[in-house]
């Protein structure tokens, strides 16, 4: 995406903010051990508003009746430093690439921000992060409170997310192209995993193969840690050890998605280690699949996540009654939340630059947000039955199933962006044996 898109976002941000100052910082490198670091990942809001993928940068928005400006601060890197860390764009490079009103050296931030904050009644920043920058900003504001000649002091703090979460809710065409690309790479990885899986293979080997496919297709990162969970381990919702051996007769649940040019995909498939579902596994699987397909069918502008959530709970409970997992009347079971033991999570979440995009599900009044074209979310019903659960027919014990796709809300309904990833029992078994 080029700078015009980011510049337009910055203009929109200025329109949405109150008079004052907003400060967003690039992500810092994070220490992994001693003096080595995790791979760099830009902060999502910062990236959304700048397209810049470097550390040591700050964006400052200034809005008043007279001015609406955006400034970039960045650290110049000496040739000696770039020998170790590689080249950075520098002030000159940034000025010619990005349309900020001015680009300054990072060292001048403290002095300049004081100027900008002098008549700012409001300051926006990433309010829940305990960063050094945030502490300094608060100190600057505090200093200004007691400064003679300052007419409006920044006494009001606000979260930048208040603005970005609304902007990020609706994805542009360009963003959807990137999400599609991420999903197309993830598709290859899941199909490969189906082909590769067999009794006695380790979860780790499958996980490594998935990451190999992500990387060799130019996806820079996983959007989240892979889950490759054989048998009963699928019932641990965030199982990321991925270090056990798969066995004949088990299912394996794989929740894995790549991040491509900062955009996530988030896909779960569950299939038989040996390639063929047993009768009991198939019964459970097709029940969950039925629920997933029914929920996807409901998605269209105007619907809300709450409606989908309630419908998924009702459909799964119905399915569990049919299979003898729950006993009793549907309404009573739901009222008593009996189904939550086997379906404890949400039906899905917004997805974008973050795999769980931090966009709202309810508005300021507490009303459910009605879906609109351009929103992207996951739909991921599941059922989890522990191997020691004696209340459930034996044949279903030790099985965890989740089926997750990524859905784009369209003008007339929705599009399943991951529909090409094998999902029916027939498609999956065919893929496993190919
Ligand atoms: Mn998900």
List the helices and strands and how they pair.
Blueprint: H1 3-16, E1 20-25, E2 31-33, E3 36-37, H2 44-50, E4 57-63, E5 68-74, H3 79-85, H4 90-97, E6 102-105, H5 109-117, E7 122-125, H6 132-145, E8 156-159, H7 161-167, H8 173-196, H9 203-216, E9 221-222, E10 227-230, E11 251-256, E12 258-260, E13 263-264, E14 267-272, H10 279-298, H11 305-322, H12 330-335, E15 376-379, E16 382-385, E17 399-402, E18 405-409, E19 414-416, H13 425-433
Parallel strand pairs: 1-7, 5-6, 7-8
Antiparallel strand pairs: 1-4, 2-3, 4-5, 9-12, 10-11, 11-14, 12-13, 15-18, 16-17, 18-19
Bound molecules: manganese (II) ion.
CATH superfamily of the largest domain: Creatinase/methionine aminopeptidase superfamily
Domains, number: 2
Strand order in the sheet with the most strands: 6-5-4-1-7-8
How many beta-strand elements? Answer: 19
CATH fold field value of the largest domain = Creatine Amidinohydrolase
CATH architecture designation of the largest domain? Alpha-Beta Complex
Instruction: Tell me the structural class.
Output: alpha+beta
Helix content: 25-40%
How many strands, which pairing sense, and closed or not: the largest β-sheet? 6 strands, mixed
CATH class of the largest domain reads: Alpha Beta
Give the overall shape.
Answer: globular
The set of bound ligands, ions and cofactors reads: manganese (II) ion
Distance between the termini: 38 Å
Low-confidence stretches: none
Cα-atom radius of gyration? 25 Å
**Number of DSSP helices?**
13
Mean pLDDT: 95
* Residue fraction in strands: 15-25%
